[in-house]
Design goal:
Number of strands: 23
Distance between the termini: 48 Å
Helix content: 25-40%
Strand content: 15-25%
Radius of gyration: 22 Å
Bound molecules: 6-diazenyl-5-OXO-L-norleucine
Strand order of the largest sheet: 1-22-21-15-14-9-8
Number of helices: 18
Shape: globular
């Protein structure tokens, strides 16, 4: 094995009292139904105490929310409660996920999101697994150079205003998921969201802060009256009622998704687009269809990973990273320089492949089987230098990011699980508020390669495979993921917001649980890092690595960068006979169960 003996001398600081010693060796179940197990069997994973660096802002050893039957973790307590209400009325995880999704549109408007799109990975306790892609598509009038001006420079129109908007997919996707896997009607699962919009709710600090942050963008696109009465953002504690949104939701609940794509709501969206010189027409909306896809099925140290295939890169990149890391029988101790090195180099290779090769499968053929194979991972592992960072070409640094995507994890009493990530892309998307329908529209067009070699708002430098074309889905990093234990039972439901840091955060939470044997609370609170190949640099959370580790990594050739926080995850995990849920400790939200 290439891992040389002198690597041990590079393990500068051991943060864990016990070295990682995961030695699972059971073969993973193939891509086949897994046995129905209800109620959930005890999880085989015994957790152990994590140790974080002394400067880290979270303490290890805290507790997640625990419940006997079911659990939902999302970025909004009200949205988690909406889903739990549906579960208590007899709904399954898919019914509850759709209820939570529509409630997030009301209570978490910065991300979401009937004006955007997303992905859902579903695993039913009877063994069926599926993935649905309701990513936005480029309007028919889109062109590959639409964001490049006559001087060859990129404009900001891929992120701001009407030209940034992709054809929204969420309503169609959630309705389709419900039709195939749910047990309740759209009308019934949407009631909690309709009530929240019609009767209102109290603005929490996350919403209040996001309205302050989004003010310039939104006002520049004509405003959004319910959120900015008299032009000023609603304050924490204000009561927010959204009559136009309540009407839109009622129309969808009563008439189905067709009203959004071919009926009255389509008319409203198309009229606003025409007024603002945007591209989306009634034809664009009428042509939108969500796509069922086979999940990426892989294994990591004996557990099964179910993840999202393209048009999201999430599953391929997560799986490629995990496969590379699995080539070592055990990872170095969490928090050590060698742990950071191995994980960062795995991420670097996964992102190089992602940014060069992946795109909408309707337009590009990517070698997904190869990229997610164990043989490819071994070749990638062999290219990792034992004690040096592998340099990547340098590009301009990524812009800062806010809260614009949201992930929620749902499990029910049968053992069904749903992982959903959904987004408007930037905070409040394009800033365009469709007043008649009470919703914001996304700026997802920026996820395309607007100009090969030039970074997008997340610093992602992407290639031809992700060039703009009419009707094409823009490549995503969203990574809704379900982990099954070796008995085929749901172990972990996880995903995140945060652009490319979604992939690296989702992967690290999986590593924390499987390799680190951390509790869910520790796995979520553990310091995170991020490496995306371009721009070259290892980003870590302030205080998340000890100075000695930072010094070692710098000596190994890493350009170290700190940020306050990385990504925003919401996860559910099975522990014994119960479920634990945890919303992002760095942000807002709540896990609610019963
Ligand atoms: O699909 C993607 O990869 C991006 N549109 C996600 C953006 C995002 O997560 C921003 N969030 N905090």
């Amino acid at each position: 094995m290439r891992r040389s003996a002198n690597r041990s001398s590079l393990i500068v600081v051991l943060l864990g009292a016990v070295a990682a010693s995961c030695t699972h060796s059971h073969p993973a179940p193939a891509n086949a139904p897994t046995p129905r197990v209800s109620p959930p069997a005890p999880a085989p994973v015994a957790t152990r105490a994590a140790v974080f660096p002394s400067g880290w802002r979270f303490e290890a050893g805290g507790h997640a929310t625990e419940a006997e039957h079911a659990m939902i973790a999302s970025n909004s307590r009200l949205a988690s409660e909406a889903g739990v209400e549906i579960l208590k009325r007899g709904g399954n995880a898919v019914d509850a996920a759709v209820a939570t999704g529509f409630a997030l549109e009301v209570t978490f408007p910065a991300a979401g999101n009937i004006g955007g799109g997303g992905y859902m990975v579903i695993h039913m306790a009877d063994g069926r697994s599926a993935a649905i892609d309701y990513r936005e598509v480029a309007p028919l009038a889109a062109t590959r150079t639409m964001y490049v001006d006559s001087t060859g420079h990129l404009t900001n129109q891929s992120t701001v205003g009407p030209l940034a908007v992709g054809v929204p997919g969420s309503v169609a996707g959630m309705a389709e998921a419900l039709k195939r896997f749910g047990t309740m009607s759209l009308h019934d699962v949407m009631q909690p969201a309709i009530t929240l919009a019609a009767e209102g709710f109290t603005v929490d600090s996350a919403l209040a802060q996001s309205l302050v942050a989004g003010k310039t963008l939104i006002m520049g696109q004509g405003g959004a009256a319910p959120f900015y009465p008299n032009g000023e953002p609603l304050a924490y504690g204000a009561h927010l009622v959204q009559p136009a949104l309540a009407r839109t939701l009622r129309l969808i609940a009563d008439k189905g998704p067709e009203v959004f794509y071919k009926g009255e709501i389509a008319d409203t969206i198309a009229a606003q687009m025409a007024r603002m010189h945007g591209l989306i027409t009634k034809e664009d909306l009428a042509r939108y269809v969500p796509e069922w896809r086979d999940p990426i099925v892989g294994s990591y140290r004996g557990d099964t990973i179910l993840a999202m295939p393209p048009s999201s890169s999430g599953g391929v990149s997560t799986m490629e990273s995990l496969n590379i890391l699995e080539t070592w029988p055990a990872l170095p101790p969490f928090g050590s320089a060698m742990y950071a090195h191995d994980v960062a180099e795995a991420f670097r290779r996964a992102f190089i492949d992602r940014n060069r090769l992946l795109g909408d499968p309707a337009f590009v053929h990517a070698p997904i089987e190869r990229l997610t194979s164990k043989a490819y991972a071994r070749a990638m592992r062999d290219s990792i230098l034992p004690d040096r960072a592998t340099p990547s070409p340098t590009f301009t640094a990524a812009r800062g990011e806010g809260m614009h995507t949201t992930h929620y994890s749902v499990v029910d009493a049968h053992g069904d699980a749903v992982a959903t990530t959904t987004t408007l892309n930037s905070l409040y998307g394009s800033g365009v508020y469709v007043a008649g329908a009470g919703m914001f529209l996304n700026d997802e067009m920026d996820d395309f390669t607007s100009q090969p070699g030039t970074p997008n708002q997340f610093g992602l430098v992407q290639g031809e495979a992700n060039a703009i074309a009419p009707g094409k889905r823009m490549l995503s990093a969203m990574s809704p993921t379900i982990v099954l234990d070796r008995n085929g039972n749901v172990l972990l439901v996880v995903g995140a917001a945060g652009g490319p840091t979604i992939i690296t955060t989702t992967t690290q939470i999986i590593l924390n649980v499987i390799d680190g044997r951390m509790s869910l609370s520790d796995a979520m609170k553990a310091p995170r890092m991020h490496e995306q190949a371009w721009p070259d640099g290892l980003v870590y959370e302030r205080g998340g690595l000890s100075q000695a580790v930072v010094d070692s990594l710098t000596a190994m050739g890493y350009t170290m960068r700190t940020v306050h926080g990385l990504a925003n995850a919401n996860a559910v995990m099975r522990v014994g006979d119960a479920w634990q849920g945890m919303s992002e400790p760095r942000s807002s939200g709540a896990a609610v169960g019963y």
